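Now for one record.
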Amino acid sequence: MWGVEGISRTLSFKDISGPLVKAVSLKTDKPDKPAGWKDLNGMGKLGVLEVDPSLNAHEIHLKYRVREYMKRKMEIENIEGSLQDFAKGYEKFGFNREGNCIVYKEWAPVAEAAQLIGEFNNWDGSKHNMEKDQFGVWSIRLSDEGGKSVIPHGSKVKFRMKKDDGTWVDRIPAWIKYAVVDPTVFAAYYDGVYWDPPSADKYHFKHSRPDKPSAPLIYEAHVGMSSKEPRVNSYREFADEVLPRIKANNYNTIQLMAIMEHAYYGCFGYHVTNFFAASSRSGTPEDLKYLIDKAHAMGLRVLMDVVHSHASTNAEDGLAGYDIGQKAEDSYFRTGARGYHSLWDSRLFSYGNWEVQRFLLSNLRWWMEEYMFDGFRFDGITSMLYHHHGIGMSFTGNYHEYFSEATDVEAVMYMMLANDLVHSIYPDATVIAEDVSGMPTLCRPVSEGGIGFDYRLAMGIPDKWIQYLTKKKEEEWSMGDIVYTLVNRRYREPCVGYAESHDQSIVGDNTYAWLLMDKEMYFGMSIEQPISLIVERGIALHKMIHFITMALGGEGYLNFMGNEFGHPEWIDFPRQGNNWSFDKCRRQWDLADQAHLRYKFMNNFNRTMIGLEEEFQFVGSNKQYISCTSESEKLIVFERGDLVFVFNWHPTTTYSGLKVGCEIPGKYRICLDSDAAEFGGHARLDHEVEHFTSPEGEPGKPETNYNNRPHSFMVMAPSRSCQVSKPFLAFPFIIHLLYTMFKTCYCLCYLKQGSLFPTYNWFA
């Protein structure tokens, strides 16, 4: 018999989200306590404790971090007016026009002197000395001459400062909006660019943000490597050539990587040098706006992969250059070993510093308002959450690992402020956290005492698939283990599931298609030749792995560019080790477009499975029930939303007359079948057949039902395939209501007469 796991994630608890504590204006005699501040005793019960009572043992820690967040927010409101105004630092710092003047400001509190230099003054700053205020901010005002800006649009600029030893160093302005590098000079440093195009040359957005979907179906993309040719692709080419592909494949959200300027292309965009500058490799700021606006026109939301967990160590052309040996309170970064990530070779922010918070919060608002991004994916926040940065840690789920002196409360406070800000600017924003530790409360609202993210990436799922694909024979795959991995997530903390992202595609790893088919992908993908057993198995499992991950792995789904059609090989950015080759730093879109290649089968299936969500909205559904996990038969059966899913992982056995449990009575019809011919299968199922349900068990005794389901129907389950059946009722709600009323009468008659009516199929 099949094992009945009976895993249900139907949410029936009362939603207790609400204000944590109202910020009232209080008079205080202590200057270190701003108006509205309350101590732990006056805070009241945190909402996160209602959601997870196990957190009660750590209430003091949770209230402490909430207090730090509230205290800092109220300080900001008292001094800056509001958190939203505080996050408009780009209107004060960097280059801004005020009437007929350009005003430039830079925070460099330990500099002895400062100058503005650039092409406009032939890099001679002697006539453009800057003045310093009591907060360590240097400024200069440059009046227009002859009705024209002293600094021409598009000209190069830098900030020159004098160190305490008397030496001068040149740096790119910290708030620079654009930076370029001379492509003809090897290992050249970037230069800042004054970006202020005339109105006629500015891109003006024409389309509003798309509505927030019930579940984000995310297409993770890297603009630079999106060309089918061995070169860096442009924003406009991506918009015109790649966006239509994404839309055609039914995704509703794009996650753009490597947007923030990074000097080293091979870092995948994660060693950021210039936080407010869009990467110039792919075009200008106006080109990026064109891309995002075109995505919005197609109904696609756009998320940005934001990197606030660390910064590049580059001094000459990066933010790290502003650290010239000062104390932590005068720097963007922590000092000593605390300010350096040993594994990433990068600098770590001092998240408790006022100006650091202004810089990072303003960075978020800048990308949302200037470029109309719809949200963010926060990279590497495990490093932010803990002083040990997760290095050498193997998290077990013990709550003491999350709430102790190892927790970086300053960083947690910053993330709470960040999520508060983003959702106050745009309530429908989507903010996703990349965390491998499993930090509780990460995806609960700030108002409940949570950190405030909307989703977390379900990072354990790809690890499990890689383990199975590389270390286990197919007959050793455990159905229960697969299901447990997919559904093992915190209650009421939404996840974005994914089978493989860019991490699984980078050099050193392999895509699942490559792990499944290896060199067969080079010469065994033509439909004009007989299919090999390796390719047949690979395509079948590729479809099943991605689909069950989407169907069970979270409340959202993510796919990396090209994996939808089984893009071969791995990603290898141009570097000295590969002779600066772009050969494996591109996307071979033509593989999916060629009618004679089998890549089209995986692409067709991916398009259809993603499209299934638009019709039935099951990914975001709280209704989820696993009715069967059979190790011997290699079967997994579950319901998500109103759909019934059957996965037969057995490599050779097809089950005829397989009994499948369900909740909704009536008749069912197949709406997705991985074995269909259009998906490269054997077309063993008839999609026109209607499957009628039969009642199960004794009325009033759920334990007597079939696999804990009140109804069942029969299906055929071909080997190495999956199928989805939908209830096929003209008025499902009314019929379901009538059925419930009828069953109630049935039970009453049984109790009164002690006999049962004959069992038959009511809907035949």
Q: What stands out?
A: The longest strand covers residues 655-662. The two ends are 28 Å apart (CA to CA). The chain is about 25% helix and 20% strand. Residues 121 and 630 are 75 Å apart (CA to CA).
